[in-house]
Specification:
The chain is an alpha/beta fold. It is 43% helix and 15% strand. The protein has 9 helices and 8 strands. Helix 1 packs across helix 5, helix 7 packs across helix 8 and helix 8 crosses helix 9.
């Protein structure tokens, strides 16, 4: 997936959201339309903003061979209509949660699976693919299979009490669980929209995900 946004901080957050969804990987980030054109050839899917410094993302849409999900603060009717008429599959209005993007990415994965039968498609095949693409759940977060309610509550409590963004390593030390387990529970909180994800860059190595409790989020699991 290619993430296109002129604000590098926003692009970092959105890239973090993408990496939380199994089966998806960020292939790159772009801050301009020109950069997006150069990098889109290596992507299956593009997360695209309307407001780019050199050109509107809406003008870029017809030039992209990849599928596109809009991620933008543009809420005027003309932008929405133009985006869909030029091929956008979904339209997400900023700010959105990791859960909201994640649901659309999972729907996109199901849509791709429906079209990957290797043969000719029937009308029913096409209709089912379209239905799963737009079958995006609303409201109540889904329970995560195999997670302990007790551990989930402990992780949520630790994150809500924190006075700053916390990494999985920090939460694991506080709660007394492994880092990998803390990462899974934190990712679940982010996907449900109760936690926000940022990226912390060190002097070496890959950036580390950090999590912060979403203001006003429900504490119920």
């Amino acid at each position: 997936m290619l993430v296109v946004d002129d604000d590098f901080r926003v692009a970092q957050v959105h890239a973090g959201f993408v990496e939380l969804v199994p089966g998806f990987r960020v292939a790159g980030r772009a801050r301009t339309a020109a950069d997006a054109r150069a990098k889109a050839a290596g992507a299956d899917l593009v997360l695209l903003d309307v407001y780019l410094p050199d050109e509107s993302g809406l003008n870029l849409l017809p030039d992209l061979a990849a599928d596109v999900i809009m991620a933008t603060a543009a809420t005027d009717q003309e932008s929405v209509r133009t985006a869909f008429s030029r091929g956008a599959l979904h339209y997400l209005i900023k700010p959105f949660t990791a859960g909201e993007l994640g649901e659309r990415l999972r729907a996109y994965a199901r849509y791709r699976e429906r079209l990957a039968n290797g043969g000719q498609l029937t009308q029913d095949d096409v209709d089912r693919a379209v239905r799963v693409l737009y079958d995006v759940p609303r409201g109540v977060p889904r329970a995560v299979k195999g997670q302990s309610p007790v551990t989930s509550r402990l992780v949520a409590e630790a994150l809500r009490r924190a006075d700053r963004p916390r990494s999985a390593a920090e939460i694991s030390d506080e709660v007394g669980i492994s880092r990998a387990t803390a990462q899974r529970y934190l990712a679940s909180l982010a996907q449900s929209g109760r936690a926000l994800v940022t990226l912390r860059y060190g002097t070496t190595g890959r950036p580390e995900h950090e999590y912060v409790w979403r203001p006003g989020a429900s504490f119920t699991t």
